[in-house]
Amino acid sequence: MRKYIVIDGKKERIYSWEEILKQMRKRKGFEQGYQAELLRLRLAHEVKVLREKKKMTQKQVAKAADMPQPVVARIENGKRGITVDTLGKVAHALGKKVQLV
Predict the structure, then answer these.
(1) Res. 1: pLDDT tops 80
(2) Is the CB of residue 34 less than 8 Å from the CB of residue 25?
(3) The domain 3-93 is classified under which CATH number: 3.40.630.10, 3.40.50.720, 1.10.260.40, 2.60.40.1180?
(4) pLDDT tens digit string along 67-82?
């Protein structure tokens, strides 16, 4: 069922996230970027979950990885990419290894 809203006297259709995503996926290059973004966000989430599981603070991880605490915060919030070198340092600080599968 389509939904509409009236703005300044004009009837405007409201699109669901699924409808918008379906249209965006038709655009060249979108899917590759979308998948890369999802991967980056999953990685950020995994780092945070692992840190919390180990009951470590961002400051403790940063010290063990020899980097400033704001770097760990940026990794966890997922707003920026991460180099393999930095990921390796964080993984080591959390007692893990980075592997390609």
Answers:
(1) no
(2) yes
(3) 1.10.260.40
(4) 999 999 999 999 888 8
